[in-house]
Amino acid sequence: PTRNGSATTVVVSENYTEKYRETQKSAVEIFAIEMAIDLSSTFNSNGCMRIFILVGYDMSKCTAEKAYAKAAMKPSHVQVVELNGDLFIRE
After folding, report:
1. 50 domain-assigned
2. Terminal-residue alpha carbon distance, the chain
3. 66 by DSSP, 3-state: which?
4. Do 34 and 67 touch, CB atoms closer than 8 A?
5. Could you read off the pLDDT of 29-53 as tens digits, one per residue?
6. What is the pLDDT of residue 16?
7. Which of 11, 21, 32, 85 could lock 71 by a disulfide, CB 3.0 to 4.6 Å apart?
8. What b/e readout covers 39-49, taking b as 16+ CB neighbours within 10 angstroms?
């Protein structure tokens, strides 16, 4: 069955966490964020890879590469990652 969910993130400046020190123990630094919509390959693909493209593989790969470049990092540098899909049925 299809389910709905929700999440909330509060984004504050580093100055805020310095002013309200109790927030520092749960603070997380965001180095990069990227968003994307379906690529043209979603609609033009055929063959055995089509299922991966339909579930957003190429879109996720593209946004990950952009975020890693923006943050000057590699996947091996990351300990935690939060992925969010706009269409949860594909996740």
Report:
1. yes
2. 13
3. helix
4. yes
5. 888 988 877 777 666 766 666 666 6
6. 95
7. 32
8. eeebeebeeee
For the entire predicted model, the pTM comes to 0.60
Residue 85, domain member (yes or no): yes
Amino acid letter for position 34: E
Task: Identify which has the larger pLDDT, 28 or 81.
Answer: 28
DSSP 8-state assignment for residue 64? H
Residues 6+ apart with CB under 8 A from 54: 42, 45, 90
Q: What residue type is 76 in one-letter code?
A: S
Q: Running DSSP on this structure, what letter comes out for residue 2?
A: -
Which residue in this structure is represented by tokens 């379906």? 38
Tell me, yes or no, whether 61 lies in a domain.
Answer: yes
